[in-house]
């Protein structure tokens, strides 16, 4: 049984790990969302962050505990669980590159986060709005297109011609891209609508994943949390004007 620790009310970065667990059909506990009487709730997570559990101390959630091993950092958590359910490549070179892709996706997600918190995570969005407007403009006009073009290039140049980012089958790297595109479509519907037109293979990859029975069942369940104006991907219409804002 794998224990996932993450904030209880937002999809956030925890969603990347949850999606691999769900798509891979692995048994897990979303510990902080369990009642305290069952060992869940915030105290369970805080005990790890404060080093009271006898494990190495993670800097921030998400982290997982699996059979006595603690892993933190979203991409590493995903790689760890993917290896247990056929969602990591087998060849060593592909395994290494899938992790490279997942870490790059974590960078992309961090840039999406920084559009609403460009100065500090300790300040409210409302206290850094002019900077957020500038940061979001660059993110929409330069960064989204650059990242999407890279993913498109990976799919196009995958020697197996599988339609996936790495190797001949779906991996956690694809699931990370899928979730990032969903998050961006929520937060930046206008910018993503335009940028996606130049990335048809990325769109196809996302459509394929959205149709997987395990993904459909999960997204319709109460295990999946909805996007909101908390967390990583936030919808602030002023950061995504219809014109593209140039
Ligand atoms: N690079 C880390 C970032 C982790 C992170 O920023 N977690 C957020 C929630 S999504 C958090 O709780 N941060 C607390 C902090 O940075 O003080 C990862 O990809 O897992």
From TrEMBL:
PROSITE patterns linked: GST_CTER, GST_NTER
GO biological process, one term: glutathione metabolic process
Keyword set, alphabetical order: Transferase
Stretches assigned to the GST C-terminal domain: 91-239
InterPro entries linked to this entry: Glutathione-S-Trfase_C-like, Glutathione-S-Trfase_C_sf, Glutathione_S-Trfase_N, GST_C, GST_superfamily, Thioredoxin-like_sf
Annotated GST N-terminal domain residues: 1-89
Pfam family, any one: GST_C_3
Top-level taxon of the source organism: Bacteria
Molecular function terms from GO: glutathione transferase activity
Protein name listed in UniProt: Putative glutathione S-transferase P subunit
Originating species: Fulvimarina pelagi HTCC2506
